[in-house]
């Protein structure tokens, strides 16, 4: 049976991401499903694609030191081949440098024959000169330094510096360039966390309990967990620890009427159902009708019966919820995803600072629209997986000014166990480098009159 070179497959995927803005996970899954890449090469393909996307700016910076032409002026094929070669030679212990260079040059002979000599020369001189690579001076040009050294857009490193200062921003930049942890949540409607860990252990999966989430389990590998029998039996779902904390701050109770306004694919919807012991009503809505199927599938798998799904634009009035006053509303808002860029590294290169302002307009419109659907005394939780103040505190502040019937509740006295994860203003904000989970924000707003 024929096989495919994983480096060639990685090149093809990176090319499509550059040209079409396709998502890496979908392209990798598609390639692997063809079963033309075997054994350890399957892991190598994933590592090459994600590694190059995560380290792209650093790889270009290194190329720039050994090429007369600036990396952004190079032909796309040549730039991608050099990124692949430098990534293997500098960041992959499992590939000897000689193999990294030779394999890349062989690929170049096939894909960009006229540039094969140039690629060979750059890779070999980069290897010889690896100890002399220079980066911008962190004291003089901290944003440029973090951007080149840890491979992030410079406007983003500038934002981190403003929020955290150099030392902390450097720790964040380091964490954001690493692969993320792989975390699941036990479906406590069917099994306790300890029991599930025992079961996973018997299946040969090594794991540890999460530090903060009571139902979270961190797996020490990210293999195909959805193929495990325990997944099919609905004993767990995949969800980052930060995302597992948001529903806890909402405190939904048995028998409540709950609106999950931006619900797909349903990670938090199903956790809310768990917290309600599968009793009450959850209206799970999303503007994207196709994604509602994912919520229903997960509910079926986890044995959740109290969720009804609707297509709804949460930023404008809807007939679907016209008659209802809710005890709890979750707004897990559409956002930039700046807190999860290590999971979707391709996305960080597509975002612009102006996106944050635009998103904040939608986020505010969703809050404004949903305010009236909450009962007096009820709680609305506003959450994002963004680290940006523009999408978080600024949206909440603006909402509170316009809606004096709401007040922000300080999470620290209500949840003393999570106080170390809260900001000075009593909002939840997690950071990958400090807390070992994704970057996340949540504000608990109570309707007082
Ligand atoms: C952060 S994701 C939600 C994740 C989900 N809560 C979970 O835990 O699995 C944001 C969702 O908001 C949806 N969305 C975007 N704009 C919306 C709008 N105007 N009204 C309702 N949903 C919207 C997107 O389709 C996306 O599924």
Automatic annotation (TrEMBL):
Gene Ontology cellular-component annotations: cytoplasm
Gene: rsmB
Keyword Hydrolase: no
Places the protein is found: Cytoplasm
Organism field: Geomonas silvestris
Protein name: 16S rRNA (cytosine(967)-C(5))-methyltransferase
Catalytic activity: cytidine(967) in 16S rRNA + S-adenosyl-L-methionine = 5-methylcytidine(967) in 16S rRNA + S-adenosyl-L-homocysteine + H(+)
EC annotation from Swiss-Prot or TrEMBL: 2.1.1.176
Keywords attached to this entry: Cytoplasm, Methyltransferase, RNA-binding, rRNA processing, S-adenosyl-L-methionine, Transferase
UniProt keyword Methyltransferase, yes or no: yes
């Amino acid at each position: 049976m024929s096989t495919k070179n994983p480096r060639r497959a990685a090149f093809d995927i990176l090319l499509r991401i550059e040209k079409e803005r396709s998502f890496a996970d979908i392209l990798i899954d598609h390639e692997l499903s063809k079963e033309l890449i075997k054994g350890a090469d399957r892991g190598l393909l994933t590592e090459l694609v994600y590694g190059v996307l995560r380290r792209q700016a650093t790889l270009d910076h290194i190329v720039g030191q050994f090429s007369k032409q600036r990396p952004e002026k190079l032909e796309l094929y040549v730039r991608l081949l050099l990124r692949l070669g430098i990534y293997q030679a500098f960041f992959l212990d499992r590939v000897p440098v000689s193999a990294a260079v030779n394999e890349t040059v062989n690929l170049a002979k096939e894909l960009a024959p006229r540039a094969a000599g140039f690629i060979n020369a750059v890779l070999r001189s980069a290897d010889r000169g690896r100890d002399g690579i220079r980066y911008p001076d962190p004291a003089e040009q901290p944003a440029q330094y973090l951007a080149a050294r840890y491979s992030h857009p410079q406007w983003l490193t500038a934002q981190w510096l403003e929020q955290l200062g150099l030392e902390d921003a450097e720790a964040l930049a380091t964490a954001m360039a690493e692969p993320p942890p792989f975390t699941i949540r036990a479906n406590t409607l069917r099994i306790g966390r300890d029991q599930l860990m025992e079961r996973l252990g018997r299946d040969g999966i090594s794991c540890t309990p999460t530090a903060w989430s009571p139902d979270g389990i961190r797996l020490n590998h990210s293999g195909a967990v959805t193929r495990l029998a325990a997944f099919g039996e609905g004993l767990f779902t995949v969800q980052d620890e930060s995302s597992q904390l948001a529903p806890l701050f909402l405190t939904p109770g048995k028998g409540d009427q709950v609106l999950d306004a931006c619900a797909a694919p349903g990670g938090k919807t199903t956790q809310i159902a768990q917290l309600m012991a599968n009793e009450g009503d959850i209206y799970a809505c999303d503007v994207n009708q196709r994604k509602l199927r994912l919520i229903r599938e997960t509910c079926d798998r986890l044995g959740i019966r109290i969720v009804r799904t609707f297509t709804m634009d949460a930023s404008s009035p809807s007939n679907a919820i016209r008659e209802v006053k809710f005890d709890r509303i979750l707004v897990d808002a559409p956002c930039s995803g700046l807190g999860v860029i290590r999971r979707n590294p391709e996305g960080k290169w597509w975002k612009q600072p102006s996106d944050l302002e635009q998103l904040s307009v939608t986020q505010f419109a969703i809050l404004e629209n949903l305010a009236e659907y909450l009962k007096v005394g009820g709680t609305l939780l506003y959450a994002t997986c963004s680290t940006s103040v523009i999408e978080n505190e600024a949206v909440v502040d603006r909402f509170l000014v316009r809606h004096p019937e709401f007040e922000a509740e300080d999470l620290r006295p209500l949840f003393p166990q999570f106080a170390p994860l809260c900001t000075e203003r009593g909002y939840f904000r997690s950071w990958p480098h400090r807390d070992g989970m994704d970057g996340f924000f949540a504000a608990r707003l109570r309707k007082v009159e």
